[in-house]
Amino acid sequence: MATSQESLEGGSIVWIDCKSIAKSIEEDVRKRVDLLSFTPKLVSVVGTDDPSTASYLRSQKKKAEKLGIDFEIIKTSPGDFLSTLEKLAEDKNVNGVFVARPLPEGLDEKRVFSAVPVEKDVEGVNPENLGFLLYGEETFPPCTAEAVVKVLESVTEISGKKVTIVGRSVTVGKPLAIMLLKKGRDATVTVCHSRTQNLGEITRASDIVVVAVGKAHFLKRDMVKEGAIVIDVGINYVDGKWCGDVDSAVEEIAQVTPVPGGVGQITTALLFEHVVRAAERQKA
Ligand SMILES: NC(=O)c1ccc[n+]([C@@H]2O[C@H](COP(=O)([O-])OP(=O)(O)OC[C@H]3O[C@@H](n4cnc5c(N)ncnc54)[C@H](OP(=O)(O)O)[C@@H]3O)[C@@H](O)[C@H]2O)c1
To answer: Locate the Tetrahydrofolate dehydrogenase/cyclohydrolase catalytic domain: which residues (predicted)?
Structure first.
C-alpha cells in the first residue's frame, strides 16, 4: 500500500505516497528509452508569455533531460498555431506533442486539440483519444486522470467503491469518471460541479473523493467520512505557497494526497511515459 505515516502532535496522518509511484514510472521510462534505437522527442507548443506556463515548461525540460528524452519548445503566434501542429504531425523525428495552456486568446480549444496528431497526442487532449476512453481503450488517456487512477490502484481496491469527483473539466473530471467506470475497475461514480446541491452530503457518503476545483481549502473536514481516501488534484498559489483544494484538517480523518508532491508529479511522469509509448508504437 503506497502510504507513509507522519506523526502530528500525538496523532498521525497518513499521506498517500505519490513520490514512489512517480519514481517507479520514471524508472520504467528510463529502461524503455534505453531499449529504443533512437532518442524519443517531445515538442511543447506555446502561444503565450504566461509565467506559470514558462515555469512548467522549464520543469518539463529538466525532467526530459533526466529521462533521456529530447525536448524542444516552439513558441508560435495564434495565426501559426494550427500550421505548427500540422508540421509536427509530419515530422518523423517528433514522437510527442504537448500544447501548453492557456491558449492564446481567440483560439478555439477544441479546434487546436483536434489538430494535435492522434498518435503523438501524449496529453490525451485530441477528441479522438478522448472518444476511445468510452470504449475502454486507454491508448493516450489524459495524464492527470490516469495519475488519479494509478494512485487509487496503489492504495485500494476500486471495484464497488463509491467515488465522488468534484469538477467536470474535459482534462480531469469527465475522463476520470469514464476511466473509473471502466469494466474491471467498476467504481460507482458521481460527478459534481458548481451547480450540485448538497455537495457535502454526497462527498460524506463516498469512500473516495477526488477534488479538481481549483479553490484552496475547498474540501472541508465535515465533507469527508472518516477513513475515506481523498485525492487532491488542485494546484493553488496562496500567500507565496502552493496548496491543493483540500483543507488541512481533512488529513486528520482521511488518507490524502499531498500538494505539492502529489498527483502533479505522477502526471508529469506519465506524460513522459506516453512519449515513450508513442515512440514504441511509431517504431513498430
Ligand atoms: N495536478 C495536476 O496534474 C493537475 C492537472 C490539471 C489541473 N490541475 C488543477 O486542478 C484544478 C482543477 O483544474 P481543471 O482544469 O479541472 O479546472 P476547471 O476546468 O476550472 O474546472 C473546475 C471545476 O470545478 C467546478 N467547481 C467550481 N466551483 C465549484 C463549487 N463551488 N462546487 C463544486 N464544483 C465547483 C467547476 O464546475 P462548473 O463546471 O459547474 O463550472 C468545474 O467543473 C486546478 O487547480 C488545476 O490547476 C492539476
So the answer is: 16-123
User: Mind listing the pLDDT tens digit for each residue in 100-117?
Assistant: 999 999 999 999 999 999
Q: How far apart are CA 279 and CA 277, in angstroms?
A: 5
Within this chain, domains 36-122 and 141-264 share the same CATH topology: yes
37 annotated as a binding-site residue = no
Q: Compute, in angstroms, the gap from residue 236 CA to the centroid of ligand 1.
A: 11
Query: Is domain 36-122 annotated with CATH 3.40.50.10860?
Result: yes
As a whole number of angstroms, the distance between CA 272 and CA 278 comes to 10
Spell out the domain ranges in the chain.
36-122, 141-264
The burial of 62, by beta-carbon neighbours within 10 Å (0-12 exposed, 13-18 middle, 19 or more buried), is given as exposed
Using the mean position of ligand 1's atoms as its centre, give its distance from the Cα of residue 79 in Å.
29
Q: Tell me: the pLDDT tens digits for 152-170? A: 999 999 999 999 999 999 9
Alpha-carbon span 234 to 260, nearest angstrom? 10
* 262 and 232 Cβ atoms separated by less than 8 Å: yes
**Cell numbers found for residue 140:** 493516450
Q: Which fold has domain 141-264?
A: Rossmann fold (3.40.50)
Q: Tens of pLDDT along 258-274? A: 999 999 999 999 999 99
Residue-by-residue DSSP string for 217-261:
T-B-GGGS-TT-EEEE---EEETTEEE-SB-GGGGGTSEE--SSS
169 annotated ligand-binding residue: yes
